[in-house]
Protein: TonB-dependent siderophore receptor
Organism: Sphingobium cloacae
Amino acid sequence: MITSALAGFAPQPVLAQTSSATQRSYAIPAQPLADALAAFGHQSGLDVSASPSVTNGKTSTAVAGDLSSSEALGQLLAGTGLTFRFVSATGVTIEPAPQAAEGSVTLGPVRVQGEGSGRGGGTVRQPADTRGTYTVPVTSSATKLDLAIKDTPQVVNVITRQRIEDQNLTQVADVIAQAPGISVMQQGVPGAGRIQYYSRGFPVTNVMLDGVVTTGAGNRDFDLWSVLDTAIYDRVEFVQGSTGLATGAGDPSASVNFVRKRPTEELLAEAKLHYGSWERIRGEVDLSSPLNGAGTLRGRVVGAYQQGDTWQDRVKSKTGTLYGIVEADPTENLMLTAGLLWTKIRVDDAVPFGMNPAGNLGPGGNPFPIISLGRSFNPATQWTYAEIEMLNPFAKAEWRFAEDWRLNVGYMFSKISQDRMYGGIGQYFYDPTANTASYSYGRVNVDGRIHNVDASITGKFHLFGREHDVVAGFSGYWGTMNNPMYMAIGTGAAPSTIAISGWNNGNQPLPTMGSPELIPGTGIPNPFDDLMNDVGAISQLKEKQYAGYFGARLRPVDHVSLVFGGRLNRWERSGRMWVPDLESVITPPFELKLVPQDLNTYSSKVSGKFTPYAGVVFAATPNITAYVSYAGIERANIDWETGTWFEDFEGNPLPPVRGNTIEIGAKAAVFDGRLNIQLAAYRMKQRNLADTFSEEARQAAIAAGGCPPGPNPLNIAGIGRYCAIPGKGYVSKGIDFSLSGQLTPRVNLSASYSYLHSKRAETGYQSCSGFGASGGGDASTGSYGGGAGFPCPEHTVKLFGTYQATDDLTLGGGAIWKSATKSSYPNGVGGLHPDAIRDQGSYAVVDLMARYRLNRRITISANIYNLFDETYLSSSDGLGGFWGAPRNVMFSLGFRY
C-alpha cells in the first residue's frame, strides 16, 4: 500500500482543491497503476494511498504536460473505474468511483469538480513532455495561439517523444518520413545526400525551432535539419497547407516545428545503448533536475553519439550531439531560459545524389529498362566526404504580467558549416550498352551565421460577456552565407564519362586541371590546378526576413469561434562575388588575391506584403468541431539552388510566387482528449512559379532573341541570368485523414491516409511542384507549365501503434504504403519525353518493435525495419534514384532513474 503520512487528519476538501490548482510538469508513461501512482506522488509532492486490491490488474493512462494535480490524477485514472478523494491538503486516497460521494472528484473530462467547462475550451498550455502519448492537448504552431488541435482550423500532426522512442527514430529524417501527408525525396545517405520533403504537392521549406521561424545556412535547409539527432527533441509538429501567419515566406505545403526538451521539476536520469545492423553503435544520456532546493533553478543536459556503416559499401558515419538548457524563476511571474546546442556529423564515401536506375534513350528513342547494380553498390569515390557542424546558443524570457497575459522575448544564434567534397558516377546517365556512366565531381563548402529574434504578447480579454484570445508580435532573422567557389567547376558538378570497368570501387584520383603552370614554360604556378581545393571565387549571400503579426480567436456566439490574423512581411536577399585579381596571379610572389566584383552584386526583395489567415470553427459538441479556413503564403521567385531571381526575357524580375490554401474539415478529441481525429479536404494554388519549358515560354524567348546574358564575366556555373515567364498556376487538391493518441489505456495508435491530386496535364503523371523553373499545372485546366517535378504518390497510408500486452511487455508495429508513381524525367535528355518513363509500383514497408521491462529501472527493446525486405526507390528524379534501406534491426538497452 502507498500510505499517507497525513492519514490521521480530517478531510479538508477546500484546502485540498486549493492545493491541487497549482500546475506542475508531469511525465508519467502508461504502466501498472501502482507504479504510476508512485510516480505521480513523487512528481506532485502528494501522499497517495491506495489498496493493492484496488490497483491490482489495472493500467494507468499516460500523463504529460503542465497540469494541476487534480487534472493529472484524473487523467492517470481515466478508464480504471477508480476515483480519488483528498483527505488532507497533501493527502489523496484512491477508491472505486462512488455515486456523488462527499468531497470526491468525478472522472470524465479532466477537471476539478465545480470548475466550468465550455465548448470553447478553457485555458490550456503546451505540454512539457510527451512521453506516454501519441498526441498533444494543445499547439500554437499554426496560429501562434495556444489552441487545442480540435480548435485549430488547419491540419496539425505531431510526432511525440513516445512515438520517437517506440520506433527508435534517431534522426530527424526518420521522424519526418513518418509524418502524415509527407512525401520524401532522398538522394543519398542523410548528412551527405540531398533530401527534400513534399506536402500536398509542394516542397516543404519552412522550419521553426520552438515556434520561432528560422533558416539554414544554404538554399537546401533540410539537408541540415534532416541529419540532426532526435535525442534533444520532445516532439515535432507539422502544420499542413499555407502557413504564412506563423512562418512568413514559403510554399503552400507545410511547416515543421521542432520543440526541444525542457528541464523537469523532478530528477530525471536516463541512459540508452543501441546496437544494430551494419555495426551501428549509439549511446544517449539525458539528465534533468532542479538545481536548488526551491526548484526555481532547473537544468537539463542531453548527449548522444552514434557511428556505423550503412547498406551501401564503404559508407561510414559519425554523429555527436550535446545539448544543455537552464530555466530560472527569479520571481513568481518571470522565467528565464538559456541553452546551447552543438552537433557535428561526418559521413565518408557517400555522394549527394543517387545513381540513375534507368539508362539514356536507346535506338529509336526508346528508353532502356531500369537497371540496378544492387542496393549495396556505392557510386562514390573513396575521397568523398561530407561534414556538418552546428553551434546554436539561445535565450528566452517569459513574463506573466497579468493573470492571463504573458510576454515572450527570445533570441537565437546559429553558426553552421557544411562541407561536401564528392565524386561519383551515374548522376546524369548510365548506358548499359556501352557500359559507361557519367562521372561527376564537385565541392560545396558553405559557412553560415543566422540571428533570430522573436517577441510576442499573448493574452485573454472579455468582451460582450465572452472570453477571447489574442496574440501580437514581431519576428525576424538575418544571416550571411559564404560559399567558396572552386575554379573551373563553380558551385556545381563537372560531368564527364567513365567506363564502369575502370571504376575500381571508387578508387579514383582527385581531379586536377593537369597544368601545374598557369602558362606552360613561364614557371608561373597555376592557382586553379587543384579543382577540389583551389578557391577561384567566393560568393556571399545575405538574407533577412522581418515581420509583424497578429492573431485572434473570438467567440461571437455560442459554439462558434473565429480564428483570424495576418502577417506583414519583408524578405530580402542580396549577393556579392569576390573574383580573382589576375594581376596578383602573374606578378611575384604569384599569390592569388580575391577582390569584390560589383558586376556580380545582385539584390532581390519582397517587402510590405500582407499575408492573411482566417478560419471559422463550429463546436457541434464539446468534443467535435467542424471548420473552414483560408491561409496564404508567398515567397521570392528565385532558383533555390543558386539564389538567383528569375527574370523575364526582357530582364525584368518575375513577380513573387504566391500560394493559398482553402480547407474544410472536421475534428474530434475523444476519450478525454487522449485521441485526436482529423479529416480535411483542401484546394491549393500557387501562382507565378517560373516557367521555362512551356510553349508560351519558348515563344517569349524567340520574340526576345533569347535570354540576355547576366553579369557573369568569369562564366562561373550558376551565376548567370535565369529567364522565364510567370506560370499560369499550379493546383493541387486532396484529402487528409489522421488519427493519433490513445485508443485504450494499453493501445497507442497513429494512422493516416492522404489523397493527392496533382497530375501533370502534359503527361498525365502524378507529380509535385519543384523548386525553381518547374512550371506547374492542373490536369483539369491544362495549365501545365512544364518541368518534371517530383513523382509524389496519389495515395499514402501510414500506420504505427503499440499494445501493452502485459505490465512489462509492449509490442508494436506499423507500415507505410504508397501507390504507384511514374516519372517522365528522362535520363541524359533535355526536356520531357513521354516515352521515357520510370515506373515504380505500389509498395509497403513494414516495421515491428518489442520492449520488455526487466524491472522498474531497466528495459530492453528491439526494432525491425522493412520486415519483408521490400526493394524500392526512395526517390527517382533528376538527381537519380536512391534505394531505400533493406531489412535491418536495432537492439536497445535502457536505464531510467
User: Anything to note?
Assistant: Residues 270-533+549-896 form a domain with the Maltoporin; Chain A fold (CATH 2.40.170.20).
